[in-house]
Queue: 3 jobs
Job 1
Amino acid sequence: MTGTAAASAMGPASAPPNPALVKIRDVIYQVAGIFHPDNKHRLLEERCSKRMQVLGVASLRDYYDCLTFKATRQAELTALLNEITIGETCFFRNLPQLDAIRNVVLPKITAARAKSSPRHLRIWSAGCSTGEEPYTLSMALLEEQKKHLKDWTFEILATDLNERSLAHAQLGHYGTYSTRNVPEPFKQKYFLARDRELHVTAEVKANVNFQQVNLSDSTRMAFMKNVDITLCCNVLIYFDSVSKRRVIGHFYSNLLPHGYFFLGHAESLYGVSEDFRLVHLPGCTAYLKSAEKTVAPEKARPQ
Amino acid sequence: MNVRESLLKELEALDRMPTLPASLIPLLRYMEQPDETLDLQQVIELISQDKSLAVQCLHMANSPLFGRSQTVESIRDAVVTLGLQRMRDIAASCSMLAILPSENAGMDPAILWEHSLGCALVCRQFARAIGFPDPAKAYLAGLLHDVGVVALLWILPTEFSEALELARSEHIPLHEAELRVPEITHAETGKLVAERWRLPAEMVSVVACHHDPRGATAYRDLVALTSLSDILCRMNGLGHGSVEDREVDFEEEPGFGILLQEHPQLRSFDWARFTFEMEDFMEEVHRLVSLMYHPS
């Protein structure tokens, strides 16, 4: 490894990032709500360079202009976001998030709903793409049913706009790449190996309900009710701020009072929703639907 | 005399535990100035005063990760190779290393050290983000806030490792586990050590009250800032090697209410972004600590 490469990998202490890249990072966060920490700058730079090659743009400074001033900025931003989120979907993609759901969120929800009936959990994977996320959730919940959720039933609503993705999801056949993070016991239990592929078992599929839903369709959104947990990863980044606010408003009202809303890694709702409460869970963040927000003003004490 | 009183008495008489290297605080304070006003010669002299620090700097500068083609033999070259920012973290880490017992009951000291260094970086960054007037002081507060853990490692290693195990297996905060065994928290032991070392009063307050900032009677801003940074670290993989299975709303933490009085901009603070930015600290901290602790 060369000294320069090592220094940039070591983060902000030694190598100040390119100012144009920092500006691009800030535009992406402002517009799409997805944040690239300094240690991901090289990755961001690679993705920008791919687009710069396509456009024939020589410098990051000029590319920043393409994203902000030029008439085609909206299309270019979408193209860059496509580069950023490409190939991201796989089983057990966001383990801290999954662990937080298993170890903190589900116990809280079941405690809050202990007296309610039916004892049925509804989890919504909004923008489920080819099905890796809803099936991961289904497997995790099947495991929990043997431990803490013995007398609970559950369903995973899995929606996407793209019909081809949904068809792939419903078939439930996956290659080695998207199943690379699946723990071995889960592979044995919840997949059947067929012709170099892994097929999701009927047991896992039984709890997943696929539907085609356009998140911008307000009428359709109004029918999604009584949700305990919504996951919407790397989808809202494509919405402009007005539609994003509207969609978030729907997500908020679709949730039950104790419900949780999850975004993708390093995605944030800052400046988009004042209704949700940001909470920190071990290794990830989530948004909580809760009316009883109280910030007690601190009384001054004599020093 | 109950268990706690006898423990505290024993701790007061504790003289096995080494003190912080005398050069640490002046060096850290000096290095907090903007880089362009720093006198390199002054930095080199301060580092050279502490032999173990000087040796560690040379070792780090010669690590393949910082890859110089020629061997680094002088402190000046080491400082140039590593950069001033990283020098400060190495100095802080050496000081932590100097006070940790070499024999330990099952605890990897690197874990404590990672938490302290991580908290120091988060404290300083947080201080800058909210306009806290003295980020250097915040850095030092983060570095020293858990000095009581070091005291427990010296005085009650077996009981402390039980507390650590309890925190890990039940996914609860360390100070809650300590209340069950050894029935004394690192905030209490830390207060005694900090007073014994004659640390500045604000540091004593941080060490004693970082788990109960409302209990602080002085320097409440610094205590609150450290308290919030400590929780951020613990919730984001820089705890004491354990995961706390709980949910934290920072705006409901006692430290938030206290800080808000003097720093109204905290009301609209972007906690999500700050948390994402922490990824950088974590990477840096893991690398520094593993380089220094497990030299290859």
Job 2
Amino acid sequence: MNFKPGDRVRADRRDPSHHSRVPRYVRGAVGTVVEQIGTHPLPYDPARREPVYTVRFDAEELFGTGTHRVTVDVWHSHLEQT
Amino acid sequence: MSHDDAPLAAQTRHVEALLESRGLLDGAELDRALEAFLAKASPANGARVAARAWVDEGFRSRLLEDANAAVEELGLSMGGGIQPQRLKVVANSETEHNVIVCTLCSCYPIALLGPSPTWYKSEAYRSRVVRDPRSVLADFGTTLPDDVRITVWDASSETRYMVLPRQPADAAEDELAAMVTRNGLIGTAVL
């Protein structure tokens, strides 16, 4: 099922050998879905399309410090509901 | 290493040569397409978009809701590249400041801002701005009040971001457009 705005999600912790476009600094971190931004081919499997979401993370969650926020666009299979 | 020596550049030249040798691609045609795309790609486009948003409340709402459709009202398009890209415009306010980056490579709204500055592609900018945007902004001479919340938008997928700065003055649309800087549209400067 697709995620909705406001859903709390955890970014994939795995470190794949291929190019997943999940930046290392958000791996395993919990953020909030801002919105779904369409459906796009997976970077490592272009024949498969998946929803992509903008996910917002607090700096504190990512780096243990800071008051800013960072948003990252992540494909569905690299997020799990918390 | 210069851009021309990068392994990716060599790979690209190799693929281009193969496509040409098999008659699938005409090098001159490719050059013309690239030139046409880049000729139309300039920060003046982003400046026009920002100025219109400041003088036209309706346009501003449409821009923040669906930027691809809104920029077409000004005769601009995100479809000049290989595939149309989704554009998201994020607006600064008294309490919110936005800045864009691509930590994985160098994604950038070329159609609206032209080719990106070298520093935008540097490892220093890409790694530092997500971790400590205030100190990066300070390096650009930009200091924000402590109560302004910063959001960094990492273009890690198919969306390209552009910042709508705060309106710098009360002036006519074309005068406002002339006040817009590229760094203002990236979010490393305020106007």
Job 3
Amino acid sequence: MSPISHGFHGRRTDEAERNRVPPGQYVTHDFPVLSAGPTPHTPLESWTFQIRGEVDQPKSWTWEEFTALPTDHVTVDIHCVTKWTKLDTVWRGVSLDTLLDGVDTSAEYVLAFSDGGYTTNLPLAEVRAGKAWVAYEFGDEPLEPEHGGPARLLVPHLYFWKSAKWVRGIELRAQDEPGFWEMYGYNNYGDPWKEQRYAGD
Amino acid sequence: MARVVDVVTETARAKSLLLDPPDWPGHLAGQHVDVRLTADDGYQAQRSYSIASAPEDDHLQLTIEKIDDGEVSPYLSDELHPGDELELRGPIGGYFVWREALGGPVLLIAGGSGVVPLRAILRHHRAAKSDVPVRLVYSARTQADLLYRDELESFDTVITLTREQWSGHTGRVGRDLLDEVAWPLADHPLVYVCGPTGFVEGVADALVAIGHAPNRIRTERFGPS
């Protein structure tokens, strides 16, 4: 139990929003930016998205091919481990189900990889069944570079560091391997509703 | 729970809390902590604050810039007094840190209160008696906004002001200033940039444009929240 901080009143989230805000989070209307390094600017002509690793036939799409794939238009709440939650964010992207369609694999994990060297790991099951996208529009506009454009992973049911910015593909893996923040003490799984912020939570 | 040992006024908008966390495992210069406040009805709010002190310092120091309409910073600035307790978790973050083994030369670039974790790095560098070259470039609005001013004068510090004319540098940290004060590219400097999002984006882009390797630039951005 936490002791009382005498004189602290806080700013309550309104009733309608409360059950949408995970423990320890607060609602922001901005879109804060958190990145470990400079923002990469990859030209679309040299951009590809790849599925590689434990797979018979690796797959790769150019930007033109990728943006011709069927998309979903989704409205989701997102939760950053630095405590902010943003409600009703609107994205357009390609479902991982679409990308993984026809991919024959025994892998149980994925490692998403990005321009700039960022990686993050997830169980394969967490990016299937309508739970994850590669998004390239935010609020009906092209996704800005500082927010991960041209395209980022969108896995809204996990803390947002799992939604890798500047994503360039996923590696299917038989064994789990920690990604960038997971190696620096952040939780391997990252469920905001269980407040799995750091290793050991 | 950490006991508040002292509260120090840094500027009109910033105060430092000197804390004694029991069983503190130690930290690396550049890391942060999570602070959790609990209201009498159980409502809780958490925020992250960079650690301002070096691992070698006697007390754990946080420097809090008060955001007038903020939820947590007004409480930390105005309501806490020596002897009070504060719930802390940490240290957190393992990338935006400097230790001797990472080498250098080190260039630290701060915008506003982004100077806090970089001051921890400077203090650690001195306490460790490192001979790795280290320089701070610190952008603030006015002289009155400068944190740790007297202390920073004892380090290799370049200050630029964006909202006040004075005898030193003025204007934003861009290519011109970086060309003048950044370590030579040939030395492969290790660069740490911390500040508000727009500041960090601008400085990091300028560094890359000058030719610094992106993987030698570590950033920490403060959201506008």
